[in-house]
Amino acid sequence: MNILIVKLSAIGDVIHALPVSYALRRKFPDAHITWVVEPTAYEIVKHNPCVDEVILFQKKAFKTIKGFRENFKPLYKQLHQRRYDISIDLQGLFKSLAVVLTANAKRKIGYIDMREGSNLISKPIKGSHHSGHIVDRYLDTVKILGCNTDNIIFPLENTAEETEYVNTLLQSRNIDKTAKFIAFAVGTNWVNKCWPTKNFARLSDLLAKHNLSSVLIGFGKNDEHKAAEIMQNSNAKNIVNLVGKTSLMQTAALLKKSQAVVGGDTGNLHLAAALNIPAIMLMGPTDPVRNGPYRQMHNVILAGHDCDGCWKRTCRKNIDCLSAIKPEQVLEKILKIEMFKHEK
């Protein structure tokens, strides 16, 4: 049997879909499972032991006529190297519709919230969690194939090289194996989901009083700018800026060594939740029921506006949404984590 998973982006969304691959592998141990993904989240899928093949979908390359002409044929050849029995559209957008149509599996299914015409090509599967967390909505999709989803596993495996790199990196910043630190995911891809840098700086100062270091993580220029502001405004001696210093899976290895992770609704928080690391998620514009840290709803802190859950990238009321969440609230949540109870 040949199975095609189409989940292209973003990092957090691809992480949410990982248990689907585990459930499929348990049900169909001899199947060939292919995953189509965009470059941003490629690393998450690359070392997934439940996936046999990863196909890169270069979305940006298809935005021009020239790019389409140059890239469609190679993608077509890759998707037609085998005849797919089932395609599973977990993206539910026009771009995934295009991939599904190109692959043309015998049976096409998708998750409940498909739109942009994708629901006309793949059959939306409505399960018992259709109003629940997105992880469970994805898993409902493969229950129709007979998959058992009682044991929910996120197949995320680090290489020895990734772990060693992180060990060396932390030691070079004077964080030894016994040091306790909180990771700060400093940015998100929505302005409305970002916690102010002054609040991160204040939290680092508060954590220092409890002998806890702060380690800043993130990717890209925007996160680098935010990290620089945090470093400038923090008085803590034990704060370390590692933004841009780790790849996605190196970040996973780093998170495994942390005591908790703090940030908005973003990929690194979902990565922490998947690794069963306490993920203190600061939320306002998105819905915790759907997008909160999986199996960690107790670690959500809501902004508390009457418009929470608006799903807007930028605030129409010109409110700095998450600024309503104070560093003291986050500190209290951190100190409630079991491993810190003796320090209170």
Automatic annotation (TrEMBL):
Cellular component, GO annotation: cytosol
Keywords assigned by UniProt, alphabetized: Glycosyltransferase, Transferase
Record Gene3D superfamilies: Glycogen Phosphorylase B (3.40.50.2000)
Signal peptide interval: none
Biological processes per GO annotation: lipopolysaccharide core region biosynthetic process
Glycosyltransferase listed as a keyword: yes
UniProt name for this protein: Glycosyltransferase family 9 protein
MF annotations from Gene Ontology: ADP-heptose-lipopolysaccharide heptosyltransferase activity
InterPro entries linked to this entry: Glyco_trans_9, LPS_LOS_Heptosyltrfase
Keyword match RNA-binding: no
